[in-house]
Design goal:
Blueprint (H helix, E strand, L loop, with lengths): L1 H17 L13 E3 L17 E4 L17 E3 L17 E3 L17 E3 L17 E2 L1 H8 L13 H5 L3
Parallel strand pairs: 1-2, 2-3, 3-4, 4-5, 5-6
Length: 164
């Protein structure tokens, strides 16, 4: 009897570990999806955009200065030349998004995930990237001009990027 029970448990464990299970994305009722139809201005300065989801938006040159972007999602968003000075993007996600020539001075991007996003030419003076996930080639590029200490967190920008 013990052998049968052990064999059954071993088989179930093997099936559980070997067969892929369906994955479901978590969703929150508090999350606000923002599409191009909802955007009537390019000025988001000082706004509370916590947990907002931007997908495939054209926001080149937009002003997010001092906005609360905690846990925001940028998916395929063009933020080329955007003003992101002093934003708090803690825990945010940017996937396939462009931050080319964006102004990230004083920004807090702790624990942000900037996956397959371009930060070429972005100004990151006084920004905090502690525990952020950024593609290695982007980190190397950012380290060339990174400097300063974030005035809110007290973290050195170069240290937060892991620059040598």
């Amino acid at each position: 009897m013990l052998r049968i029970r052990t064999a059954v448990l071993s088989t179930l464990l093997a099936l559980f570990l070997l067969l892929p299970l369906p994955a479901y994305a978590a969703s929150s009722a508090a999350t606000r999806a923002i599409d191009d139809a909802d955007i009537v201005t390019q000025d988001f300065s000082g706004q509370n955009l916590r947990e907002a989801e931007f997908s495939n938006n054209q926001l080149a040159g937009a002003n997010f200065k001092e906005a609360d972007l905690t846990a925001v999602v940028f998916n395929g968003v063009d933020l080329t030349g955007a003003n992101l000075q002093n934003v708090d993007m803690t825990g945010g996600l940017a996937y396939l998004s462009s931050f080319i020539d964006a102004d990230l001075r004083g920004a807090i991007l702790t624990e942000a995930m900037l996956l397959q996003s371009s930060l070429r030419g972005a100004t990151v003076t006084n920004a905090d990237f502690s525990f952020a996930v950024i593609d290695k080639d982007q980190v190397i590029s950012l380290c060339k001009d990174a400097s300063g200490v974030n005035p809110v967190t007290g973290v050195d920008t170069r240290d937060s990027l892991g620059c040598s």
